[in-house]
């Protein structure tokens, strides 16, 4: 279990670049007759912010990971209201699917629907982490 402030804002930029390439957009994409192509991405602007804190759930049981993630989110909302944090779940490559990611997604949905702690969340670039926008 690791928690650190600052860090890997470049992951979001890497994700955005891969998304642009997947969607057929790149820096040299042009519209007709040399005009820049109109490009619209569906990622909210807050996802471009560098996460204020990270929490790594690797190596924990599913139950421990969910409990610790909820505790982390509630604490971060108190000390950093409105901030963006990253929950690192891993992609579940060890053969059992992605049980931590699945349960953390369920937790995030519930916390978002109940209002307060989680304002919004997205699955990060390599699908091994969530970016979470905390409530005010």
Fold and architecture overview:
The protein has 136 residues and is α+β, with helices and mostly antiparallel strands. It has a domain at 56-80 and 102-112. The protein is built from three helices and five strands. A five-stranded mixed sheet has the order 1-2-3-5-4, covered by helices on one side. It is globular, with a radius of gyration of 17 Å. The chain starts with a strand and ends with a strand.
Features:
five-stranded mixed beta sheet, 35% helix, 18% strand, disordered N terminus
Order of helices and strands: EHEHEHEE
Outline the low-pLDDT stretches.
Answer: 3-9, 25-40
Strand residue percentage: 15-25%
What is the number of beta strands? 5
Question: In order across it, which strands form the biggest sheet?
Answer: 1-2-3-5-4
- Give the biggest beta sheet: 5 strands, mixed
Span from first to last CA?
Answer: 26 Å
Question: What's the pLDDT, averaged over the residues?
Answer: 76
Structural class, from helix and strand content? alpha+beta
Structure annotation, total helices: 3
Radius of gyration, in Å, reads 17 Å
Helix amount:
25-40%
Bulk shape? globular
What topology does this entry show?
Blueprint: E1 2-5, H1 10-22, E2 53-56, H2 62-79, E3 84-88, H3 99-114, E4 118-123, E5 129-134
Parallel strand pairs: 2-3
Antiparallel strand pairs: 1-2, 3-5, 4-5
Helix pairs in contact: 2-3
Q: Quick summary of this structure?
A:
The chain is an alpha+beta fold. Helices cover 35% and strands 18% of the residues. The chain has helices at 10-22, 62-79, 99-114; strands at 2-5, 53-56, 84-88, 118-123, 129-134.
């Amino acid at each position: 279990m690791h928690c650190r402030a600052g860090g890997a804002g470049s992951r979001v930029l890497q994700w955005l670049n891969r998304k642009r390439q997947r969607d057929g957009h790149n820096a040299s994409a042009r519209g007709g007759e040399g005009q820049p192509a109109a490009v619209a991405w569906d990622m909210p602007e807050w996802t471009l912010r560098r996460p204020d804190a990270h929490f790594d759930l690797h190596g924990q049981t599913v139950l421990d990971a969910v409990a610790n993630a909820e505790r982390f989110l509630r604490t971060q909302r108190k000390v950093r209201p409105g901030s963006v944090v990253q929950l690192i779940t891993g992609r579940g490559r060890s053969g059992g699917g992605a049980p931590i990611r699945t349960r953390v997604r369920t937790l995030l949905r519930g916390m978002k629907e109940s209002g307060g702690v989680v304002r919004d969340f997205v699955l990060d670039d390599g699908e091994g982490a969530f970016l979470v926008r905390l409530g005010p």
